[in-house]
Automatic annotation (TrEMBL):
<keyword id="KW-0560">Oxidoreductase</keyword>
<feature type="domain" description="Nitroreductase">
    <location>
        <begin position="76"/>
        <end position="245"/>
    </location>
</feature>
<dbReference type="InterPro" id="IPR000415">
    <property type="entry name" value="Nitroreductase-like"/>
</dbReference>
<dbReference type="Pfam" id="PF00881">
    <property type="entry name" value="Nitroreductase"/>
</dbReference>
<dbReference type="InterPro" id="IPR050627">
    <property type="entry name" value="Nitroreductase/BluB"/>
</dbReference>
<feature type="compositionally biased region" description="Basic and acidic residues">
    <location>
        <begin position="1"/>
        <end position="11"/>
    </location>
</feature>
<protein>
    <submittedName>
        <fullName>Iodotyrosine dehalogenase 1</fullName>
    </submittedName>
</protein>
<dbReference type="GO" id="GO:0032553">
    <property type="term" value="F:ribonucleotide binding"/>
</dbReference>
<keyword id="KW-0472">Membrane</keyword>
<dbReference type="GO" id="GO:0140616">
    <property type="term" value="F:iodotyrosine deiodinase activity"/>
</dbReference>
<feature type="transmembrane region" description="Helical">
    <location>
        <begin position="193"/>
        <end position="214"/>
    </location>
</feature>
<dbReference type="GO" id="GO:0005886">
    <property type="term" value="C:plasma membrane"/>
</dbReference>
<dbReference type="InterPro" id="IPR029479">
    <property type="entry name" value="Nitroreductase"/>
</dbReference>
<keyword id="KW-0285">Flavoprotein</keyword>
<comment type="similarity">
    <text>Belongs to the nitroreductase family.</text>
</comment>
<keyword id="KW-1133">Transmembrane helix</keyword>
<keyword id="KW-0812">Transmembrane</keyword>
Length: 267
């Protein structure tokens, strides 16, 4: 799919170099270039991987329609909750929701994700302290005044009690690349969108089983949280999700969603 033969590889590399040169900020590319290409090309998973028949469940049109309605209704009830009950969640539930996220599609089946599930109180407290310290700087110095203003309806502040209250924190790390068994670098194509899809599936699984989450992206916390959790440098923190049950006093902003006509264009 990516490099069928050397000629194609050459032309796609030349185009990739022009289109996807690294930015001044050193942002990694989704595509390889010459330096990444070894002399002998061997797929990262065996070329002779067998193809087996795909046998989906057969459902009638009525059943498909009914399920589409039910799933929409379930997902429309999902809300970001910022106040959690401390009630623990069974380990098997956490295993199953992460397992579900791991069924996500990914570029060339690279599965570029690591889900760190923190239930240990001391570690949650350490995470909270790092995030609050950084968020204090974010709110006062790093974020634009417009950004801080746009957050006002959500009543978010640098204080994050949910990070120590929620029974579990799931930290979603994106692997920018990995290593093959022969020690060579394994490219992770489209790792950003792959992890975003997996995170969406994770949120859907959390909603389906009746729990809630807070989708958060702690600004400037990547290296400190990565070190705290002893993660390697090829992993970047993308999301921090407190997961659990809502606090009995939890409230959510009364927002509306764009109607179908605004988000879907039929061609
Ligand atoms: C990528 C992303 C980052 C977010 N970051 C934060 C965050 O750092 N803190 C927070 O309280 N909410 C955060 N949110 C939650 C949004 O504010 C929330 O999804 C939005 O207001 C819509 O509300 P709903 O999730 O209840 O539908 C984030 C959501 C997304 C998708």
């Amino acid at each position: 799919m990516f490099h069928k033969n050397r000629m194609e590889a050459h032309y796609s590399r030349t185009a990739a170099k022009k289109k996807f040169a690294p930015t001044a900020g050193g942002r990694e590319r989704d595509y390889p270039n010459d330096e990444d290409d070894p002399d002998i090309l061997v797929p990262a998973i065996p070329e002779n991987t067998p193809h087996i028949p795909y046998r989906p469940l057969q459902r009638s049109d009525e059943e498909v329609l009914q399920r589409s309605r039910e799933y929409y209704e379930l997902m429309a009830k999902r809300r970001t909750v910022r106040s959690f009950s401390t009630e623990p969640i069974p380990q098997e539930v956490l295993n199953n929701i992460v397992r579900t996220a791991g069924t996500s599609p990914s570029g060339a089946h690279t599965e570029p994700w690591t889900f760190i599930v923190v239930q240990d109180q001391e570690t949650k407290t350490a995470i909270r302290s790092i995030v609050e310290e950084e968020e204090d700087l974010n709110y006062t110095k790093r974020m634009s005044r417009q950004w801080v203003t746009d957050l006002k309806p959500f009543a978010t502040t640098a204080t994050k009690p949910y990070l120590s209250d929620a029974p579990a924190l799931i930290l979603v790390f994106r692997q920018t690349h990995s290593w093959r068994e022969d020690g060579r670098k394994r490219m992770h194509y489209y790792s950003e969108i792959s992890v975003a899809i997996a995170a969406g599936i994770l949120l859907a699984a959390i909603q389906y089983c009746g729990l809630v989450a807070l989708t958060s992206t702690p600004l400037n916390c990547n290296s400190r949280l990565r070190d705290l959790l002893s993660r390697p440098v090829n992993e970047r923190l993308e999301l921090l999700l407190p997961v659990g049950r809502p606090h009995s006093d939890a409230t959510v902003p009364d927002i509306t969603r764009k109607p179908l006509e605004e988000i879907m264009i039929k061609v």
